[in-house]
Amino acid sequence: MDPLRQSKLDEALVRMIACDFQPFSIVEDKGFREYSHLLDPSYSLPSRKTLSKTVMPRLYEKLRGDIMEKIKIASAVCLTTDCWTSLTTTSYMTVTCHFIEDFQMTSYLLDCFALTDRHTAAHLARELTRVTNEWGVGDKIVACVTDNTSNIVSALKDHLHWDHIPFAHMLNLIVRAALKEVQAMLQKVKTIVEYFHRSTVASDKLKDTQKQMGQEPLRLKQDVATRWNSTYYMLKRFTEIKDPIISTLALTNASLPNLSPDEWEMSREILDIIKPFEEVTTE
Question: Would the pTM of this model clear 0.85, i.e. be above it?
Fold first, then answer.
């Protein structure tokens, strides 16, 4: 195989590993090696060391250069950043850049790194300065979107003097405040949804009822306390299969709270109210 094709296939392999979150050791798996050989017997699979030490860094530098050129053309950018903790309790900071390219929103992850020092405002400001300097966007930033924690707010406003927009966090607080007004109705919905998730018999019966009514079987969705949009998805699915739910609950004789006609109407009205917020957060 000529070196150019070998290089292209090596890069394609690394892209697959990165996109699908596969380990480098996949090249040592018997099944994958046989599959690769069948596709092209002339292709020599690189070792995991070659992939991680040579091919991956080479592709990284190539992609970084391509992205750098696109960012250079952008006249203005917006950043989003957040700090989070992994399952192994390691703290990380992520910085993403957004701008308009050919009338399309374009986003690139600039950096994701472990925070080894205390998460002080000064330290976060230094890290943000490092990232923006490395990518040459320091003089193009028009705003930075974050959550509303005091250290990141102070880093942006007091140390970097950037315009700070805790947009997503504010949306979350607004919608949560609105949902408190219909908490009694939502609690009934949660109780019913939890019942169908706990009971295999009830879940199967709900599926059968949907089929009998000529509907494609849909599973109920549970909400997550920290994510208001999960409440939206739960309520949306709940109203979509209203009739099968009512029929199934009647057949199972479950001792569960029933939604009154007014509450069913309320659920639809709430969906109409918070739908624009959901659309904004997913655009």
Answer: no
